Amino acid sequence: MGAVASFFRNAKTGMDICTLSVDLGRAGWPSAVADAYLDIKSGGGQPRLLTRIDSHNSRQCKEIAKTVELRHLEGIRGNFGVSDTEYMAGTGEPELLDQLIYSNSSAFVKHHQAVFEMMWENGVPAEQKIQEIELGFPPSETRIIRSAAEAAELARGLIESSKREVLIVLASPAVVARNAGDFRFLVERSKERGFKIRILAPIGGEAAAEELEGVEWRPIAGINAGIAIYDGMGALLSQYSKTGPDGDGQVVSSIFTTNRQFVGGMISIFEAMWNESELRQAEGRSRRMAEVAQDILAHDIRNYNQVAMLNAELLEGVINDPQSKELLGSVLGAIRGSTRLIDKTRELGRILSQKEVTLVPFGLNESLVRALSLIRQANPDRELDVTSKISAGNVLADDLVDEVFVNILSNAVKYTDGKQVSLEISLEEQVETESGTPRRYWKLTIADHGKGMANDLKKDDFTRYSPSDKGSGLGLSIVRALVVNRYSGILRFRDRIEGDLTKGTAVEVWLPKAESHGQTCASAAA
Predict the structure, then answer these.
(1) Is the pLDDT of residue 61 over 50?
(2) DSSP string of 382-417, one letter each residue
(3) More confident residue, 250 or 228
(4) Do domains 2-134 and 142-258 have the same CATH topology?
(5) Which residue has the higher pLDDT, 524 or 179?
(6) Are 56 and 24 within 8 A, CB to CB?
């Protein structure tokens, strides 16, 4: 007993103890541990105790946990203590201290410090274990399963005992085909015992879902693990070496646990994924219905417009009264405006609905030349006076990039009075660092001499329908959808002459400089 007391007194910064028992009423090691721990704690040390907590000692452990850090670990087979400089272990029962192993070898002590740390990491905090005992929960179990056959056998046993619901997350739809017998067994037991089955699997598992009668199925993005939760009481996680479109991943290992907190957390994750998948499906259905309705509506309205346009043009040829001609001209203008609005709405919808786009190097100069040519053809009664200071510059974009400049130039013509439309176009390199990572851009500025843009509109994100006295506002919505959402660029508006909005507007289009290759990216608008 003196050797044990001396061992504890020598501890300076802390003491780690692993013991079979903490029964303070018994003589020997438990009593010595309790007395020495009080001395270490009072001296400012940090004692840690690892033991098995059960219904017989939970009250004592609850008291001990008030003064030392205590954890529960199943399967403890011996007693040892390790401090910063010494190691001691008993060779027999806790109450027999006549045979001890002692060492102050630095290598030996460090080895057992590492052993204790591994055991400590696998331990359950005393508060959690004691609460489970007090609430009458069955003891939890967590173990690693290396054999796929053992994991399959365990899964069958869990299915046999399931009564309410089995939740499954598949790493690949091919898992169903590879384990057809196991899934048939699952469905058969579900019918016999009346429990529900819900499965989350990567997109492409619809065919497999049809084979599993009575199973609720939702698509998700691919993951590299499989999860099965049985009646909310146990969870089996399988880690795969790899998974691909063909689902050829092999199970590396599995983890089974009945830990209530862990299983509850996995259920929460499953439900969140289930709800998200349901929302995505509903969103997809709504989008398809909206696209169909838009196409039908646009088609029919264009047809009506064409009939109205044809009749109005016929009337224009036979009416000589100036006032009637003027009114008829207004009608024709409204019909043409309606048709343009339909076209722009369809174009904006198409841009926003695309999820993935392929971006390649596009020449800014060539795109501007094409856009200016289109604007001149569309406005034969206007003269474009363009001062251009641009050189060759390639940006990462696609064939819709012309639409950016067509819409900006159309606005410049629309909001400039008189026959002549003056434009200044310039190009310069810029580096943006606000995101934290420097990005290189070509900044193209188009400045007009029109009526200018109100300050509140300069800050408008143009993500919604923003009409004005001369148009629908959809042109700038298209510009923003392309520059910001599709090309990951920057769009800014300012007065051509700072502080005087009546002297025209300058539109800055920042587009990422092109690399030597194209890339496919997800559209931020999708």
Answers:
(1) yes
(2) SEEEEEEE----EEEE-TTHHHHHHHHHHHHHHT--
(3) 228
(4) yes
(5) 179
(6) no
Residue in 443, 444, 450, 427 with CA at minimum distance from that of residue 496: 450
Amino acid making up residue 494: R
Alpha-helical (H) ranges within 379-500 are: 401-414, 455-458, 474-480
Secondary element (H or E) of residue 358: strand 356-363
Q: Domain 354-522 - what CATH class?
A: alpha beta
How far apart are alpha carbons 251 and 257 in whole angstroms?
17
- Distance CA(245)–CA(61), nearest Å, equals 52
For the cut 60, the answer to whether the pLDDT of residue 205 exceeds it is no
3-state helix, strand and coil shares in percent for the chain, rounded to the nearest 5: 45, 25, 30
Name which residue leads in pLDDT, 298 or 118.
Answer: 118
Q: Looking at per-residue confidence, does 295 or 413 come out higher?
A: 413
Question: What is the amino acid identity at position 296?
Answer: I
Residue type, 203: I
CATH superfamily of 2-134: Endonuclease Chain A (3.30.870.10)
Angle at 202 between CA 199 and CA 206, to 5 degrees: 70
- Indicate the Cα dihedral angle 401, 406, 412, 413, nearest 10°: 170
Give the separation between CA 194 and CA 485, rounded to whole angstroms. Answer: 49
Per-residue pLDDT, 292: 67
Topology of domain 142-258, per CATH? Endonuclease; Chain A (3.30.870)
Q: What is the pLDDT of residue 91?
A: 73
Which of 47, 50, 46 is closest to 21 using CA atoms?
Answer: 50
